[in-house]
Amino acid sequence: MRDLPPLPPTRKRPMKLNTLVTLMVYSVTGAILLVIFVLYFAQITRATRDGVRDTALAVARTLADSPEVIRGLSLPPDSNIIQPVARAVMQRNNLLFAVVTDMRGIRYSHPNSALLGKAFIGDDLRPALEDKENVAVNHGVLDEALRVFTPVYNAQHQQIGVVAVGISLIKVEQQIARNRWDAIWLVLFSALMGALGAWGLVRMLKRVLFGLEPYQISALLEQRQAMLQSLREGVIAVDQQGHVTMINHAARQILNASASSHTLHEAPLLANLREVLQTGLPRQDQEINCHGRLLLCNTLPVKSENQLMGAITTFRDKTEISQLLQRLDGMVSYLDVLRSHSHEFMNKLHVILGLLHMKHYAKLEEYVLLTANAWQSDVGTLQRNVKSPVVAGFLLSKISRARELGFSLTLSDASLVPDNPNEQQVAGLITVLGNLIENALDAMAAQSEGEISLLLHYQQGWLSAEVSDDGPGIAPDHLQAIFNKGFSTKGENRGVGLFLAREQIENLGGEIAVESEPGVFTQFFVQLPWDSERKSA
Description:
By secondary structure, the chain is an alpha+beta fold. Helix content is 49%, strand content 20%. The chain has a 5-stranded antiparallel beta sheet. Strands 10-11-12-14-13 form a 5-stranded mixed beta sheet.
């Protein structure tokens, strides 16, 4: 056994909806939270530093206004007046140091008592000696610190010294770290809420999409479009406002609509759809006349959870259906004629065989000539004058049907019908002749005998047909109404044949007319384009 050819590589399955939505929500939420965290952390850092600075300035200003400090600066550094006050302030406010200097930068207080009376280290003291508050980050004798300097004034508002307060940067960073955890907990809580929101969003989308994945919806949409475009019936869907949302290829062909247009100009179809939108009730097997076309429509409301979402109509050209029925009727009649002819010729062969056995040759000759003449009058005329096999078979079946009913159908010897490759024109001719002949047979049903005459003549691309009978005729006030849909003198559920015949002839570019004198005759005149083989070649 030969190996089977390898299957084409399958396309990679797209990502599932829950995974896609979750990743998308997490990506957006994560990006936003990252930006918020950075901005929040920067804000916290700045606010913490500013808060520490303001606290240090407040402590320094309070210490600078202290009477003990002002009085102590008027005495030598070893007077030990400022040192206890500064040490108490430092311990009470958890400061790295609280140093008081005179205008020469000599220390009057320090965490290390051995450094009393010695000069302050750092150039950041100079702005304070010049009567300006100053904030700096520097490394002195102790650790690196945030240092705040403020002048000290006596009662005459003369600067007599400087108060320097230092807060360790390690403690500042610890406070910032404590605030950073607040931001981290906020980000984690926001991420949790984002996850819950993504889960709820996926659940809602799944419920709305009937549990289908996006790629499954795309495949279903493509299959739906292919199915709709392959239908022979026209399909049109509208929304609640009556706007066309879908129209397939068959509908465009039937209505001669533009391929890019979604506007429906067919007033009968619009009225039908609007009525269904208003009532919410379906309409089945309704016949609608749209610009010369008889459409058989089924219109249904589209509902979702008992809410009217729109309407959809499917329709088919009933003229086409009538043509198919006419062809089917013609084929059945043709088969009946062949069956009757088969029995008739079988009987004739038996007669010929009997005459041969009895050796009545004179009678045999007479009988054969009579049979040949009968065949010549029926079939021979059709073969000579009607070159279209479909039309010839149709006329032969009608001739036999008329003979069975006791009437005669005669084709004029002047008739000429060339063959035609255009099936629509052939179907149109058969439809109109079938209706006219059947109507004539029905009209003469009450008579003991009657004759139908048929003349078919082709000239310069046009085929003219004259169908006349000697039946009861048509009343003058009915001549214009016989082509209206539903008009009939034969009872209910009739009056469609002549209406369809005229519609089909006019759609082909032809015309039909009638003349009648009650009690004398009725004559129909038909003219339609006829594409002969010579013309089509």
